[in-house]
Amino acid sequence: MVGGYSLLRDPHHNKGLAFTDAERSAHYLRGLLPPAVVSQELQVKKLMYIIRQYQLPLQKYMAMMDLQERNEKLFYKLLVDHVEEMLPIVYTPTVGEACQKYGSIFTRPQGLYISLKEKGSIREVLRNWPEKNIQVIVVTDGERILGLGDLGCQGMGIPVGKLALYTALGGVRPSACLPVTIDVGTNNENLLNDEYYIGLRQRRATGQEYAELVHEFMSAVKQTYGEKVLIQFEDFANHNAFDLLAKYSTTHLVFNDDIQGTASVVLAGLVAALRVVGGTLADHTFLFLGAGEAGTGIAELIALKISKQTNMAMEEARKKIWLVDSKGLIVSSRKESLQHFKKPWAHEHEPIKTLLDAVNDIKPTVLIGTSGVGRTFTKEVVEAMASFNVKPIILSLSNPTSQSECTAEEAYTWSQGRVIFASGSPFTPVEYEGKTFVPGQANNAYIFPGFGLGLIMSGAIRSHDEMLLAASEALAAQVTQENFDKGLIYPPFRNIRKISAEIAAKVAAKAYELGESFFVRIHPSAICSYGSQYMYQLHHFLL
Q1: Could you tell me the pTM of the whole model?
Q2: Which of 5, 373, 436, 512 is a good FRET partner for 398, with 20 to 30 A between their CA atoms?
Q3: What does the pLDDT look like over 473-483, one tens digit per residue?
Q4: Where are the alpha helices (DSSP H) in 363-447?
Q5: Does the annotation mark 162 as catalytic?
Q6: What is the pLDDT of residue 307?
Q7: Which intervals hold domain Malic enzyme NAD-binding (predicted)?
Q8: DSSP alpha helices (H): ranges in 388-458?
Q9: Neighbours of 56 (CB within 10 A)
């Protein structure tokens, strides 16, 4: 470790005024700092005061990124201690705006940028990264950032934000995390004409050129970091996301958060909601607005859970789930024109063009929005759901807030306060007829940090759907009656490190059961007790 002035410029080891007198002497810091010794707790208090003075969320985001670049320890301490307040700042929804303006606010690189210029030398590029013991990589090509579309190279905000949560919420060491953006160009004309755009100024490469670059990256990662490195695909467009997951799931430890993470967190919410509405998943009818990565991923995991609970064939389980896309209800008469990932959901039914007509005809008990289009759960749609369900379940999952299918206030008001509601982005509590409802957030941050930690600590080299089911069950088990009384189907985020430890333990135990774990001589019960002990604890942030 460096000492003296260089230590104060090293974000991984700098503690600012928290260096003790003994540390200042040992590391040649005497005279380089004011004489006062200020604890991390007091530094956090001061920084929270400063951050709260900012009026705009983007200003708070920039302040947090600046803190991460100069004092990593303090950044994670602040994020963990104030997770419910700061999570929407470092991730959804503020990270969406940050990606849109990334070129304007860019100061220092926070990850690896692998563009078409690096084709043929990606392994050498990976060696340029200063940390060598990488355990998890979050990678995007920036083509479908949240509900905001193609942001090209500026999608780097997503891997950076996700990996900050891997450490803060899941306890993965910061030095073991690597954010990556694969830059193959962008089809966003506004960015191509933006003088501050930081990526390749060309239209997106596709086909063989794209596939070869991604394959070289995947091969280089495995050669450089080994079989146990977790590669999380993030915000790839539908036409690539499903193909990449299918192609590499048999050769690499891969996980697509948009498809699998979203599915796991939504399934957890539904399993928890059953304790309020009653019945099993097989007793309910599900209708989705949106049939992309998130919609079909959630639907498939629900069907898998139903199949395992009832011994029903997957084909039969899928018939309880209906999807609506931009052309209407997905039915068998459309099968020939459908993308391959939509075809399993093409059931026998007459064509229906609108969501409202689909709701009135199918009469679902659960309505799930993954469309990326705001205000599509209209008053008529919500009132229809409430007309034939005592407690309709409505999940408005699209991000950021502006793309949410409806607001929490709309859902509670239009259903006369009877809805069980959760959203993808956070909403403030809603008061309706004297009762305060606290809307839950179906945030992937409940799942992916603990899921990833479970894979890492088990030594698994492949991921399986059964592990996602285990993660869902672990999360649902954390919801208490007190949470239900407030209208929540997810536990509060203030307990997220405990929740992540539970999820990690259950995932590791499932890896053991499936023969994917290096814990070959340890019983699953012992793995469970190992979860929280394995996490990178805050006291490790000290020198």
Answers
A1: 0.92
A2: 436
A3: 999 999 999 99
A4: 379-387, 408-414
A5: yes
A6: 98
A7: 259-512
A8: 408-414, 448-458
A9: 10
The position carrying tokens 């759901």 is: 385
147-161 mean pLDDT: 95
Which residue's entry shows tokens 């459309």? 334
pLDDT value at residue 510:
94
Q: How many CB atoms lie within 10 A of CB 527?
A: 25
Indicate the residue type of 539.
Answer: H
Q: What percent of the chain has pLDDT over 70?
A: 95
pLDDT band, residue 247 (cuts 50/70/90) = very high
147 and 243 in contact (C-beta within 8 Å)? no
Length of the chain equals 543
Predicted confidence (pLDDT) at residue 222 exceeds the cutoff of 60: yes
- Say how far apart CA 192 and CA 199 lie, in whole Å: 9
At 287, is the secondary structure helix, strand, or coil? strand
Full 3-state SS string of 397-424: CCCCHHHCCCCHHHHHHHCCCCCEEEEC
Weakest mean pLDDT among 50-64, 71-85, 508-522: 508-522
* 320 to 14, 266, 291, 347: CA distances (angstroms): 55, 16, 15, 10
Query: Known binder of ligand: residue 399?
Result: yes
Two tokens at 312? 């029903």
Give dist(CA 331, CA 355) in Å, integer. 14
The SS3 assignment for 368 reads: strand
CA distances from 396 to 101, 295, 338 (A): 26, 12, 24
d(CA 510, CA 487): 31
Find out whether 204 is annotated in a ligand binding site: no
CA distance 471 to 268: 8
Pairing relationship of beta strands 440-441 and 366-369 according to DSSP bridges: unpaired
Whether 357 has a binding-site annotation, put simply, is no
Average pLDDT, the chain: 94
Which of 111, 136, 444 is closest to 265 using CA atoms? 444
b/e for 327-356, b at 16 or more Cβ within 10 A? eebbbeebeeebeebbebbbbeeeebeebe
Residue 379 bears catalytic tag: no
Beta strands in 164-285 (DSSP E): 177-183, 230-233, 253-256
Three-state DSSP at 485 gives helix
Exposure string for 203-236, b = 16+ CB within 10 A, e = fewer: ebbeeeebeebbebbbebbbebbeeebbbbbbbb
Active-site residue, selected from the candidate residues 77, 162, 320, 506: 162
